[in-house]
Amino acid sequence: MADKVLSPRAAAHASVTAVMKSGRYSNLEIDSVLKSNEFSADADRALYTRLVYGVIEKKITLDHIISQYSSRDVKDVDLPTLNALRLGVYQLVFMDKIPDFAAVSESVSTAPAKSKGFVNGVLRSLLRADKKYSLPEGDSAEDMSVRFSASVEVCGILIDSYGAEAAEKILGALAPGRIDLRINTTKISVKEAEELLGTAAENPYLPDVLSVTTLTEATRRGIGEGLWFVQDTASGICTKVLGAMPHERVADTCAAPGGKTFSAAIDMGGAGEVFSFDLHENKLSLIKKTVERLGLSCVAVAERDAREPDPTLCGTCDRVLCDAPCSGIGVLAKKPEIRYKADEGAARLPGIQYDVLCGASEYVKPGGVLVYSTCTLNRRENDEVVSRFLSEHPCFRAVDFEVPAKNGKDLVSHGGMLTIFPHEAGCDGFFVAKMIRN
Questions:
Q1: What DSSP designation does 241 have?
Q2: Are 395 and 437 in contact (CB under 8 A)?
């Protein structure tokens, strides 16, 4: 039974304000609202989701546009009023199927009573100017920050890692897109999933992945029945590189939220052993529930610090995945709030990642495979961590690999390391390195 019924715009305003006040991840807020509130149609659910992600994703750009039409400094506008303006400007400028009158009137309705006139005036000024606005065109971190709505620090990390031209392409591609569903082939065939979802498996890299534009009731029902789960293509590619086989022993040392654990177990046909570890006990219940829903009895879930491996498993695993905690720059499309805080802890992360990788390596048996991955695009957290590990652990060597693509855009590692760029692969940004114990 739904708690209450909200219009998608009112719900979006409440959620955006809640996320910005509390620092909660937007995907968790959205999931909570979709479960507890009743919308009149899938279209309303989709509109709500698009508005929340969109306004948070483009916050800096929206504020820059608002500043060109507001008599008040954006910094002096209270958050509920500012979010009403952001919702209106986002619909007017970035959504082409929303009528102007609806974007203005509905946004004004979400504003506090004292500021409805102000919000109406700013939005109508934008309309009178034919929605024209200016953005900085330079290639500095400051200019990119406004143009792509990411912190100056995040833009600087990308520029330092790959250069200004590549940084611009990366930032331009890190926007909400399709939702990828990994089919649980231990329960249902890809063909059966295609028939249930009414879509074809056309993923260029992963034959058992289907893509949808939104999570409809039918899609959510399939998730609840364990027929599929949400996993971005980049994460699926990482599991493919791991290459888990039936009857092997596999360890996933930083498992939450569990997608790679589930994929590895499915690749094994549910036969073998998968140890799913995570430092945070509060995240393990979600993994356990999903394991049960998917019917993957070969998975054992336990709390463990990856830097302190289980001595009873050391040297016994065929394949080990170390998906290290990272700044998350590659998943800005899924978690847009990271655009403004991905630099937090950046100085200490490489040291933690190195220690986590060293701990994970203890599980690998001679001849076994070790995969290090992150969902960030920061060379200090990626290439440099792996290079340091290899130089200090001569018992491991890097091995090159390829991920063939149906569209001809094969992914090829260099020195055993692969950076997946969103503007090239059409998925999250990711880093994967493959090593073998001699």
A1: H
A2: yes
Q: How far apart are CA 231 and CA 227, in angstroms?
A: 13
Q: Which two tokens stand for residue 36?
A: 């507890």
- The rounded radius of gyration (Å) of the Cα atoms in the chain is 23
Check residue 135 and give its pLDDT: 97
pLDDT of 4:
56
Please state the pTM of the whole predicted model. Answer: 0.91
209-246 pLDDT, tens digit per residue, is 999 988 888 899 999 999 999 999 999 999 999 999 99
* Of the candidates 349, 334, 350, the residue with the CA atom closest to the CA atom of residue 429: 334
Q: Rounded distance, CA 61 to CA 325, Å?
A: 29
List of residues 6+ apart from 40 with CB closer than 8 A: 5
Report the C-alpha gap between 193 and 199 in whole angstroms.
Answer: 8
* Phi, psi angles (nearest 5°) of residue 366: -55, 130
Tokens 């994460």, residue located: 235
User: Which residues carry out catalysis?
Assistant: 375
Give the three-state DSSP class for 72: coil
230: β partners? 181
* pLDDT tens for each residue of 314-329: 999 999 999 999 999 9
Backbone angles phi and psi of 303, in degrees to 5: -80, 130
Residue pair 85/66 in contact by the 8 Å Cβ criterion: yes
Residue 205 has pLDDT above 80, yes or no: yes
Confidence of residue 286 (pLDDT cuts 50, 70, 90): very high
CA distances from 421 to 167, 234, 270, 375 (A): 10, 9, 31, 11
CA distance 322 to 309: 12
Q: Both ends of the chain: CA-CA distance in Å?
A: 57
Residues 6 or more apart whose CB falls under 8 angstroms from that of 76 comprise none
Other CB atoms closer than 10 Å to residue 92's CB: what's the count? 19
